[in-house]
Amino acid sequence: MSFWESLRIGSSGLLAQRLRLDTISNNIANAQTTRTENGGPYQRQEVIFMPEQKNLILPLPVAARRNDLGMLQGGVKVAQITTDTNPGPQVYDPTHPDADANGYVQYPNVDIVVEMTNMLSATRSYEANLASVDAVKRMALKALEIGR
């Protein structure tokens, strides 16, 4: 695997985890949003990843990294951002402007504990990808140093 390919794989992870962090931050920011443009409370969003795959003609030692479809895997990409349609909690508050006729307010389906746990996971994944990019950079610099 080349330095460039290693950097590309690491950077794809950085971009994917950054989008995941942005989505989690948006969920937390809207945890109390009871009215959106579409009407109703904010609905939690989640990022779905999938492996990047390429069709390449490879030498035999690299063929061991192929999956069952005969594709070379490397890196990650965002497949989609889904919306969680599960209902959020209903809270009795007849003074709230978004209360229904019975005095209940429908709140978003965002659980702050779940979001903070996901944020820690995404942060750790981002740090791991950053460490791999940094290691590749150090190896490339060392190779240049040796070549002098």
Please, could you describe this protein's structure?
- The protein is an alpha+beta fold.
- It is elongated and about 80 Å long.
- The model has no long low-confidence stretch (mean pLDDT 88).
- The chain has helices at residues 3-29, 112-147, and strands spanning 45-54, 72-83, 90-92, 104-106.
- It has one domain (3-31, 45-83, 110-147).
- The protein has two helices and four strands, in the order H-E-E-E-E-H.
Characteristics:
19% strand, 148 residues, alpha+beta, two-stranded antiparallel ribbon
Counted by DSSP, the helix tally is 2
**What is the molecular shape?**
elongated
Number of domains: 1
Biggest beta-sheet profile: 2 strands, antiparallel
Structural class: alpha+beta
Strand content: 15-25%
* Widest sheet, order of strands: 1-2
Q: For the record, give the distance between the C-alpha atoms at the N and C termini, rounded to a whole number.
A: 23 Å
Arithmetic mean pLDDT: 88
Q: Which sequence of SSEs, written as H and E, runs from N to C? A: HEEEEH
Number of E-type strands: 4
Tell me roughly what share of residues is in helical segments.
40-55%
The poorly predicted ranges are none
Q: What is the rounded Rg?
A: 22 Å
